[in-house]
Amino acid sequence: MRVGAVALVAIVASVALELLNGRTISALGTWLGAFPAQALFNALFGVLLAFGVLALTGRAVVSLLIASGVLALLGAVHSTKVAALGKPLFPWDVVLQYREAFALVPQMRGAGWLLVAAVLVAFGLVAAVRWERTALSWKLRAGLLGLVALSCWAIFPRVNQALSRVGGTNIFWEQASNYRVNGLLLGLALNANSAIVRAPAGYDSKTVKAALGKPVVVVTPPSGDHPTVIVVMSESFFDPTRLPLVKFVDDPLPNLHRLQQEHLSGTLFPPVFGGGTANTEFEVLTGHSMRFLPAGSVPYQQYLRRRHPSLASLYAAQGYETVAVHTYHRWFWEREQVYGFLGFQRFVGLEDMPSAVLDGPWPSDALLTSQLIEQFEARKGPLFMFGVSMEAHGPYLPGRYAEETVRFESELDEPAQRQLAAYVQSANHADRELGALVDYFSNVKTPVFIVFFGDHLPSLPLVLAQTGVIGNLDSPDLKQRDFLHQVPLLIWTNTPTAPKALGSLSSSFLGPVLLELTGTPGSRYTDFLSGVHRALPVMVPGLVSDAEGVLSDEPPDALQPLEQAWWTLEYDQLFGEQYVDREEG
Fold it and tell me: What are the tens digits of pLDDT across the range 180-202?
């Protein structure tokens, strides 16, 4: 009887979980009628979870409370992530990003968290006053555990095929729709299955060689001194003057706007929105594209487990010191390990900055400026630095800064205005430090290049909705995706150069552009990327732009072989036999 009761309550809980998947009660009824097979899958996963806990505890009430608490927590985190970032909860979020998750905690409020709190309180009360006197027999518990293990073995590796047999589809190319149609638990199961990266068709040394094509010399090394190269990836930096219905009385980014008129500038397209700094960093440093990898995956945490060519290793091959600087903890996004794989000789993290100061809730951008200058002054030879800031990290809560100096007028309501004001002040501080860097290096006699860009747009759901930029974060159209992926790119140098518009480019192509500008030899792979850049300057998940600026979901038919060649080379370096490295010789 207790086993049946656990199963029944687990089914109800798994269905009720959909209320935290963005459904109203009426929409829940519509979903159950339209997609009964998907609802049954979700119910099955809820029952397996409850049975697994029951097998371990032997007590029905406690098992149901624990299982319901887990489901409520998953639903609350999922709803919070969708509201803040427009992205669903992915299985690797739970496994790999537990240390980074605290950044979203201040935004986690509302009905979902009230439900979690209620379940936890109920658990404490019931566990205290109604602990079941007798547990299930060990034989029955062993049978339940065996049933759960056998079901998981039979279902999870084949969940895509099982769903197809009942007429369902894994909508992996549009994850918001995937979770709406298939439900939260089934969506998680489908993505866990999809996380296994399979080799491109026909992958071998010959297909890699064919994908590379004929050698092309893109860079001719200069005869003079190696220039100092400083890449600054500014946390959540974008140009808020792009927002409609907002008029700035004070220019929030005076230095950027002035320097854009005097030097090289363009629009960078990172692969992420609202979060996922490490994935933009991954594209810039390796030249790979997140477009080919499972939605929501984090290569720094999942795939980079061996030495891998990057901008750092290419500059190191030319005799450069290669230094990474980040004004946050070394463990964040597992940079401490990954930077070594990418060829950085030294990593300066927050632990190495005893005089660290906060500006708002995070370490200041001024701290990054001082660290970059300090590393430059301590150099022993040509220097390549990659700096990552932290100050503008969300959430953008009222009162973040004691003084807000950037004035604007808007039609936003008060909560949205306060959200925007908090963000704009942090962006203004980033702009101030850009000016400070340029002022310092303007007085340096040797050649210097400073590359400055944002890692992604900030998470400003109230502002984006009320300015009409986007109606629904989980289902933006092409034009809206175009807006959400644009951040400013500036390349400043103290050497004589004419102002030039770099146009639009994915963050994957920034490396080849920088190598060419600084006269630094690249590799067969970066030369290949230079060719892709000319044909398809923007290639991010869910958005492509050709050389004429035409937006689409996929490349035109004539350019799809080029996209396939890119994936073959990326797979080879990340997961395969690294035949590309052998072709370098």
Answer: 889 999 988 888 876 678 889 89
| H or E element, residue 321 | strand 321-326
Instruction: In whole angstroms, give the CA distance from residue 382 to residue 368.
Output: 20
Give the span between the Cα atoms of 360 and 404, in whole angstroms: 11
pTM: 0.79
Q: Grade residue 369 by pLDDT with cuts at 50, 70 and 90.
A: very high
| Model confidence at 392: pLDDT above 90 | yes
- DSSP class per residue in 336-357: HHHHHHTT-SEEE-GGG-TT--
Which of 255, 274, 270, 240 minimizes the C-alpha distance to 422?
Answer: 240
- Residue 128 banded pLDDT, cuts 50, 70, 90: very low
Indicate the length of the chain as a whole number.
585
Calculate the average pLDDT of the chain.
87
State how far the Cα of 374 lies from the Cα of 577, in Å rounded to an integer.
40
CATH level 2 (architecture), domain 208-584? 3-Layer(aba) Sandwich (3.40)
Of 574, 575, 2, give the one whose Cα is nearest residue 283: 574
Instruction: Give bridge partners of residue 359 from the DSSP assignment.
Output: 362
Nearest partner of 571 among 374, 345, 291, judged by Cα: 291
HSE toward the beta carbon, residue 456, CA cutoff 13 A? 22
> b or e along 54-89 (b: 16 or more beta carbons within 10 Å of the residue's beta carbon)?
bbebbbbbbbbbbbbbbbbbbbbbbbbbbbbbbbbb
Which residues in the chain are classed under CATH 3.40.720.10?
A: 208-584
- Comparing C-alpha atoms, which of 221, 230, 285, 228 is closest to residue 521? 221
- Give dist(CA 42, CA 45) in Å, integer: 5
Q: Which of 554, 49, 34, 525 is nearest to 311 (CA)?
A: 525
